[in-house]
Design brief:
The protein is an alpha/beta fold. The protein has helices at 17-26, 52-62, 76-81, 83-104, 135-150, 166-169, 173-182, 201-212, 230-241, 274-278, 287-299, and strands spanning 8-12, 31-36, 44-46, 66-69, 108-113, 123-124, 154-159, 161-163, 187-191, 195-196, 198-200, 218-222, 228-229, 248-252, 268-271.
């Protein structure tokens, strides 16, 4: 697909940390209609992925050249507590958008997660069998299956441990650590029994932009280079902020947080970008380089 200022892209679920990165990248080159149920930016219009008829009307009028579905509930505990809405958003929402893409013959992008794997292996490439453990991942896995069954012109991009969006929008591990720091915590309790592949939203958006120009449709893992534990990220985070001698890290296992984080999580969510590497389309940087950029751009100014 040739991406120009005449290319029209419809994005659903654009209010979050990834949506901001996708919008910032694609809006430089294309005409964007960004939607979400959370109107937290002036460039976002209301759109609910659970409502097929509303989505169809908006898309039919806009006539996009590409649909990007970012809409998802991603808080694992919220998903366990609100299973019905999780299935409606993460699975039925994916089906709604795939149906519209099929009916209007529009290429489609669906964002998935390394969480579709059970963590029994150390690493997972693009072709490994899914076996999700929690409601969030089960619904996302159904989204993958639906898109693949319905469409031929599709991309499914699997992300690892997402980081990006800054203090305002980052709902993941890095921002949770930072909030503890600015709240005066002098000791951080960090697990060392979960492993994954950090995925910087800016690199993720840049890599997607390059892949879709090739028309090499299919499913792709997209994670940063190298993998790590939650502990490794926390250590690097404190070092980059210059706080390694001021804040103590105490290693705990996941049971320490079992009341707060009760959803089942895989032991390993490490991704291998096998297809991207083989096709010379892997533009993801090392996670430490990305974390440094992220901290310099978003967090140092807040200390």
């Amino acid at each position: 697909m040739k991406l120009t200022n005449n290319t029209k892209i419809f994005i659903i679920g654009c209010a979050g940390m990834l949506g901001e990165a996708i919008y910032n990248k694609f809006s430089k080159y294309c005409d964007i209609l960004a939607t979400d149920i959370n109107i937290n930016e002036k460039w976002i219009q209301y759109g609910d992925v659970r409502n097929y008829y509303q989505m169809f009307e908006m898309i039919h009028i806009y006539k996009p050249d590409l649909i990007i579905n970012l809409a998802a509930l991603t808080d694992l505990e919220e998903c366990e507590n609100n299973k019905r809405n999780t299935w409606l958003t993460n699975a039925l929402g994916a089906e709604n958008m795939a149906l519209i893409s099929k009916k209007l013959d529009i290429p489609h992008i669906y964002i998935s997660t390394a969480g579709v794997f059970d963590g029994e292996q150390n690493f997972y490439n693009d072709f490994e069998k899914q076996n999700p453990l929690n409601t969030y991942a089960k619904a996302k896995c159904h989204g993958e299956i639906i898109v693949q069954k319905m469409l031929s012109k599709y991309y499914i991009f699997r992300a690892g441990w997402m980081m990006g969006g800054g203090y305002k929008k980052d709902k993941k591990f890095v921002n949770k650590i930072f909030k503890q720091i600015i709240n005066g915590h002098k000791e951080l309790f960090i697990v060392n029994d979960k492993f994954g592949t950090p995925t910087y939203t800016i690199d993720f958006a840049n890599n997607i932009f390059e892949v879709i120009k090739t028309d090499l449709y299919g499913l792709y893992n997209i994670g940063c280079q190298d993998s790590c534990s939650r502990y490794d990220i926390a250590v690097e985070f404190l070092k980059l902020l210059g706080l390694e001698d001021k804040i103590k890290i105490t290693i705990v296992d996941s049971d320490y947080f079992k009341k707060e984080y009760f959803a089942l999580r895989p032991y390993s969510e490490k991704l291998i970008n096998l297809k991207l590497q083989n096709r010379n389309m892997d533009y993801m940087r090392d996670w430490k380089e990305c974390l440094k950029e992220y901290i310099n751009n978003e967090y140092k100014k807040l200390l």
